UniProtKB/TrEMBL annotation, chains A, B:
Domain HTH iclR-type: 1-63
One GO MF term attached to the UniProt entry: DNA-binding transcription factor activity
Protein name from the UniProt record: IclR family transcriptional regulator
Pfam families, per database record: HTH_IclR (PF09339), IclR_C (PF01614)
Domain IclR-ED residues, every copy: 64-246
Length: 257, 257
DNA sequence: CGTGCCGGTTCATTATTTGAACTCTTGGTT
DNA sequence: AACCAAGAGTTCAAATAATGAACCGGCACG
């Protein structure tokens, strides 16, 4: 791993649940020496990518990141376009909806609309979702370049629950089913007791760039409701894709083997 | 400059006006060798910090940045809290309002509410503002740690227009005036024909963490209107600071020499 | 008042980064 | 259709930056 990769690895240790970390914690979790960790943090903080709390001496993500994110968002308004559709979908289904964008080989959760129900699924912003084992991942693969699907599925796939599909053939079957239907389903593939449906958000080339997903407690779901959620998430994604790309887009299905 | 600094320098070349750049352009503007530039870009893209357009081969900021920014925003909802106040202030004044956050020794513009008038000031998201020469900068300095003010003002200050105040004494006078009034004024200090007022957004320790500013065409401004804008921007900032910190905060004025 | 953990620092050793020179491709010009 | 210019991307010996064991001083706990 190069120096740049290490610096970004440190940034990736900050999560919604643990947004502030001390030097020793960062060193321990990254596996980098304390001196190395510190030097990287100093470089990052000089450029505004991390900030250090003056009194607790702990580090957190810095304003420089927000600034760049806003530049990106001004150019490519993924959140601005998708957020209202996600909110509407959440209200319509009464369930937690999360929006993901593809980045560095996985899906990153960039927005969440929490269900208002007492019994609901909680998803953290910034969470990284694997492409197998989540409804979002399968929906993404179903509308990705075949090379990407192949290279992903050729590596060993870890299990997250006892229900995670890890076999190449099983994943490909789920992908083909999702491509045919237009949305994917996943029951407890990533977390016990959670059922999700997801559909792809397409880029100008017709391939997926992200996903929208509805996540429900499994106990609430039956086949009819799952299908209704599937149709709803597909509609929302179609609308988002249209707004993002300005014009209709020919979808790229993965129906072949 | 360390490797990490160079990587971030590359990221900082992407702006709202030029959100996509080719390898040679990046190499030229950064002054790094083309091979070096490329290696940095590859590292960055492997981690989702930049993306490469498949057909044009140009680079742009990546989704990994959005992801981290969302984690930060979930922890510290600067934009979420400030944006509505900025919008209201823009509607109230009829002028362009911009929100800045302090980062790496300068103010970074993270949100803009454009005036709806035909003759208006345009500000780009992501723009870096110097601490002298903008109303925002002076407002920030007026509510900053004295050490920060001193170290800033001890370095040579560039002029952006013929009206930019660059002398240590002049800057300190403007800072003291802003501290006494609660807001700052700047006439054409950064761009010709632009008049601005600004007030600080305060952190939990009572020192400024950002600013809110109203920017008008100079032709529209007289003393009375400037004062009304000043009071309005101060009110908005007070409200934001309160919401951000949860409780009243003792302000830290820079009234001493 | 000793022990452990924290943040932070030092400097000889080591590994990564660097950049001149190269190829390959594209698009425009004569 | 041959030429030129400019772009993206690659190679490898030389130069430079990153590394980490051992260190300091402070603070909290028993």
């Amino acid at each position: 791993m190069g120096t740049v990769g290490k610096a970004i690895f440190l940034l990736d240790l900050f999560t919604a649940r643990e947004p502030e970390l001390g030097l020793s914690e960062l060193s321990r979790r990254s596996g980098f020496d304390k001196a190395t960790t510190r030097r990287l943090l100093v470089s990052l903080s000089q450029n505004g990518f991390v900030e250090q709390d003056v009194e607790s001496r702990r580090y957190r993500l810095g304003a420089g990141i927000s600034r760049l994110a806003r530049i990106r968002e001004a150019h490519f308004p993924f959140l601005q376009i998708s957020t209202p559709a996600a909110r509407e979908l959440s209200l319509q289904t009464g369930e937690t909806v999360h929006l993901s964008e593809f980045s560095a080989g996985a899906l990153a959760t960039v927005h969440v609309e929490q269900s208002t129900r007492a019994n609901r699924v909680n998803v953290d912003i910034g969470q990284i979702l694997p492409l197998h084992g989540t409804a979002s991942g399968i929906a993404f693969l179903a509308f990705s370049r075949p090379e990407l699907v192949k290279s992903y599925v050729d590596h060993p796939l870890p299990a997250f629950t006892s229900h995670t599909i890890t076999g190449r053939a099983e994943v490909m079957a789920a992908v083909r089913a999702a491509a045919a239907r237009g949305y994917s389903q996943s029951s407890q593939g990533y977390e016990e007791g959670v059922f999700s449906v997801a559909a792809p958000i397409l880029g100008p080339d017709g391939y997926a760039i992200g996903t929208l997903s509805v996540a429900s407690p499994l106990s609430r779901i039956d086949d009819g409701l799952a299908a209704r959620h599937g149709e709803a998430v597909m509609d929302a994604c179609r609308q988002i894709s249209l707004s993002l790309n300005g014009e209709p887009v020919g979808t790229r299905l993965n129906l072949a083997s």
